[in-house]
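If you are new to this repository, start here. Below is one unmodified record pulled from the training split, so you can see the exact layout before writing a loader.
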Amino acid sequence: MTTFADLIGEAGDAGPTLATVLAVARAEVPGAEEGTSYGVPALLYAGQPLLGLARNAKGFALYPFSGAILAELGADLSAFRVSKGSLGFDHGQQIPSELIIAMVRARRAEIDEKHS
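And here is the target side for that same chain:
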């Protein structure tokens, strides 16, 4: 099973970008734990997947584990490959910290709502 450390180690010069994504997400939800969800390395919050990161055929992808989040963000995502459940990005492409934070906050709010 792939871990974040494996993914970053195998990403070559994209490793620092992936490490930054994780650092920003972890700073936003300090209690998040590393795990997997749907076979993807993920940060888990309250036992639920918060944010996943994986390599794919075209580069890498962030997974908010919610089909609604990317549509709700309202951010300009035209620089990325967007599907209902993932934000794809190229090797070496930077992801704005504000976008990562918005994704994490939105997903955390969904999880909190389910548990309240």
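Two things worth knowing about this chain: Residues 4-114 form a domain with the Aspartate Aminotransferase, domain 1 fold (CATH 3.90.1150.200). The chain has a mean pLDDT of 92.
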